[in-house]
Amino acid sequence: MNVSNTATPTDFISLLDDSNNVIFNMTSDEAAEAVISGNTARVRRIEGQFAIVKKVGQQVFLARSIGRPMRYFLAKQVSGPLLIVAERIDEIYNFLKGMDLHHQFHPSYTRMVPAHYVVRLEVIGCPDPNPVYTRFFEPKRNNLTHDLDEIGKAYIGALANECQKWLISIPENEPVGVLFSGGIDSGSVFLVLYSLMLKLGMSPQRLKAFTLSVNNGPDAEQAHQFLDQLGLSLFLEVIDVPQSAVNYKEAINVIEDYKSRDLESATMALALCKQLRSLYPEWKYLADGDGGDENLKDYPIAENTELTIRSVLNNMMLYQEGWGVDKIKHSLTYSGGQSRGHVRSYAPCRLHGFKGFSPYALPNVIEVAEGIPFIQLTDWNEESLYALKGEITSRGVKAITGFDMPVFEKRRFQLGAATESTFKQIFPQGEAEYRAYFHSLYAR
C-alpha cells in the first residue's frame, strides 16, 4: 500500500500492490519516474504488464498495460478530497467503509484507467476535476509486408521475446503452467515456452499444460490431440472439475463485471484456478493465450450488432481498447475492449495466489499485430479474416520453434471447457441476470 508523502497525506492513497507488476527492463521507481515525466516515449519503453500510480504535488499520474487492472474513486472529506486507487471496486468500497465514507459510494462512480494512456488527475476540491488522457502506445498500422511467413515470424518472434524475458525473471526452481485448451493461442504460448526452455538450458520438466474439463468438455480431447501429434502429451494434465464447482455468481464477485462473454470465460477460469490451487498449493506462475483473438481480430463480427468488418479493420486496436476514451461508447467505469475484459484472466489468478502472464496482451506483441495489412490481405472478407489467425500463427510457430502446430476450429474457452448441455445449465440466457446480481452486491 502506498500513501501520499505530501504535506496533506489524507488526500490520496494507493491500495495497489507493486509486486503484482511484471516489469522486465527497469525498477518500479524508474517506471514511476517515466510515468510522471510527461514523456510518452519513456512510458512506452516500460516492458511488461503493469499498473503504476504516483502523486506529485496535487497531481496524480496513472498508467497501465492491458495485463493489470487499475481504477480510482474520488471521495469527499471535511478536509477536502480523497483519491483512492486500487485494482478492485470492493477494495475501494471496503476502504471507504473503514473511514465511514461508504455512503458516498456506488460502483458506477469508480473509474477504470484505460490501458495505454497516462491519466493525470488534480486532487482538488469541488467541482471534481476531469482526467487528462495522454496516449503512450500508438503502434504504426499496416507496416508489414503481405508475406504470411514474414508476418508470422515477426508476430511469434515478438511473442517469444516477451516469453523469454518472463522465463528469465522466474526463479529457476519454480514450475511454469500454461492454461491450455489446445487452441491456437494457448497452443502457441505452450510451444514457444517449451522451445525457449530447451534453448535456455532450462528443465522442460518444469512445464505443464493444464486443461479444464467440466463433464468431459471437448477441450480435453482437443488438448490430447494437439500434444499427441507433437509427441508432447506427457506435459498435459487435464483438470476435472464437477459442474457443482462452477458458479457464475462467484465469478461476478471476482471480476466485478457482468459482460456475458467475459463472465463466462472468467467462470471457467475461476473453477480451473481454484482446483489448481487445491492440487498444487505452492504453484505460482501461470501463462495463458489471452489477447490472441484481439490481436488478429478473430471474433465473429455477426455476434455484435455494433460492428462491421469495416469498423473492425479501420479502427486501431478496437478489440483491445474499444472505441476509445474520446468516444461516446467508451465506459468510464470499465474502459473498453480487452482493456475492460482482461480481468476475466487476471482476477481468478490473483484470487488464488497465482502470478499470471498474458504475453499476447503486451504492447510489443500488439504492435506487430497492428502492423499486419489486414485490409489488403482480406479484401474486406470476413471468412478470409478469420482464416488469417491460424495461417499467421502456425507459420510463425514453425519459424520460431520448428514445430508444425496443429490448428483446430476456433472455440471459445468457456465453450470448450464444458459440453453444450452443461454450459446451458451453468449460465442463464442474456446479460440482464448478471447485471442484476452484480448491482445487488452494493444494494443499500
Automatic annotation (TrEMBL):
Tell me the keywords, alphabetical order: Ligase
- Look up the domain of life of the source: Bacteria
- For whether the record's keyword set contains Ligase, the answer is yes
Q: What class of enzyme is it?
A: ligase
Residue limits of the Asparagine synthetase domain? 173-307
The record ties this protein, via Pfam families, to: Asn_synthase (PF00733)
What Gene Ontology molecular function terms does this protein carry? asparagine synthase (glutamine-hydrolyzing) activity
Q: Mind telling me which SUPFAM superfamilies this protein's record contains?
A: Adenine nucleotide alpha hydrolases-like
Reported EC number(s) for this entry are 6.3.5.4
Please list every transmembrane segment annotated in the UniProt record, as residue ranges: none
Ligase is among the record's keywords: yes
**Listed name of the protein:** Asparagine synthase (Glutamine-hydrolyzing)
